[in-house]
Amino acid sequence: MAKTIGKYFIAIVPEGDIQSEAKALKLEMQKRFNLKYALKSPAHITLKMPFNWNENKEEVLIHKLDGFFKNFQPLVLELCNLGRFGKRVIFINVTESEILHSLQTALKQYCKTNLNLVTELSDSAYHPHMTVAFKDIKEKRFQEYWDFAQTLKFDKSLQVQKIALLKRIEGRWKVIFSFVLNNGEIKC
Q1: Distance between CA atoms of 27 and 133, rounded to whole angstroms?
Q2: Can you give the C-alpha Rg of the chain in angstroms?
């Protein structure tokens, strides 16, 4: 069987109203400024940056990650207004969460040790966020984008019960599996 390499990443992918409202922000950026690259994936909070994996061993990846995520309990995140990384990314802020940072740090170590994945700089300098616009942002127009973004409001509480494995399929990121945190049971 020939080795086929796929591109994957791991993220929190909100559902329902939060997904709809985040997508609406992306669509508004597309409508006003023709910024559409962020529409290639559902709104998400990245936990592990994109990595290559042998597609013939995709079930192994899913099995290992499922075992890892069963050790973690659901969590609550607060999403509040928009932020930016320099003049290259506009995003929805995720309020600091010690539980989220602990989960991401454990995942980073697990991926390095058990999946033989490289630790990326962004894995080490973790700043959780939900991207609204990036890649097709033009630096000379950034202030115009940012002035508009600052007029937008986003204030939501996100109940995280699942973590998603996404795969690049035909140029778009698709959720191919959802890992339930601690079988969905919230323990005190």
Answers
A1: 10
A2: 17
Cα(2)–Cα(35) distance, integer angstroms: 38
Q: Tens digit of pLDDT for each residue in 20-50? A: 999 999 999 999 999 999 999 999 999 999 9
Which residues does 116 contact at the CB level (< 8 Å), separation at least 6? none
* 37: CB partners within 8 A, 6+ apart: 133, 134, 135, 136
| CB count in 10 Å sphere of residue 117 | 18
Q: Give the separation between CA 39 and CA 42, rounded to whole angstroms.
A: 7
Q: Which residue has the tokens 């599996």?
A: 177
Task: Render pLDDT for 70-101 as a digit per residue (tens, 0 to 9).
Answer: 999 999 999 999 999 999 999 999 999 999 99
